[in-house]
Amino acid sequence: MTSPSFMSGHAIAQIGGTIAEVQAFCKEDQPIYLAVKGVVFDVTSGKEFYGRGAPYNALTGKDSTRGVAKMSLDPADLTHDTTGLTAKELESLDDVFTKVYKAKYPIVGYTARRILNEDGSPNLDFKPEDQPHFDLKDEF
Ligand code: HEM
Question: Coiled-coil ranges per the record (predicted)?
Fold first, then answer.
């Protein structure tokens, strides 16, 4: 599909759109990402869940691990932080991580928090080959 950013003025005139319409179209065309447990998933194919106005839109654009674990959309829960979660919530998190996210959506990367330490130095415990769906061909 042609990327709207490469459309010439002529092409824009042809589709007869106003600038606002073209901008809206460009936005619609953006992929939708969310992270769970520091793994970034492309959830664009789940637009009916995650798109603008969809019920789980609040989970996108960030690491929403806590919200997924607690099945909560409370803004305070839309964080990577798992402090104080119950064993049941952690189990539920792993379940959804495996059965929904890993099963349905392509992995497009990892959050900085997963690959770097707080001071920005590399996290030596991060082993790409241990990450879900890691494929050297995709990485380089
Ligand atoms: C009244 C409350 C809720 C109902 C009735 C409900 C219902 C559902 C249903 C029926 C699905 C499966 C849809 C399908 O596979 O076609 C689903 C998926 C899901 N729900 Fe809920 N839900 C509720 C609240 C929540 C809340 C508060 C969260 C907060 C995180 C949440 C997170 C999810 C997630 C992450 C999925 C998987 C979406 C995907 O496949 O990508 N749900 N929900």
Answer: none
The dihedral through the CA atoms of 126, 74, 30, 132 has a sign that is positive
Report CA(115)–ligand 1 centroid distance (Å).
29
Query: pTM score, two decimals?
Result: 0.78
Distance from the alpha carbon of residue 112 to the mean position of ligand 1, in angstroms: 27
In the sheet that 33-36 helps form, which strands lie side by side, from edge to edge? 33-36, 39-42, 107-110
DSSP lists the bridge partners of residue 35 as 40, 63
Query: Which ligand 1 atom minimizes the distance to the CA of 67?
Result: 30
| CA of residue 55 to ligand 1 center, whole Å | 8
pLDDT, tens only, 39-65: 999 999 999 999 999 999 999 999 999
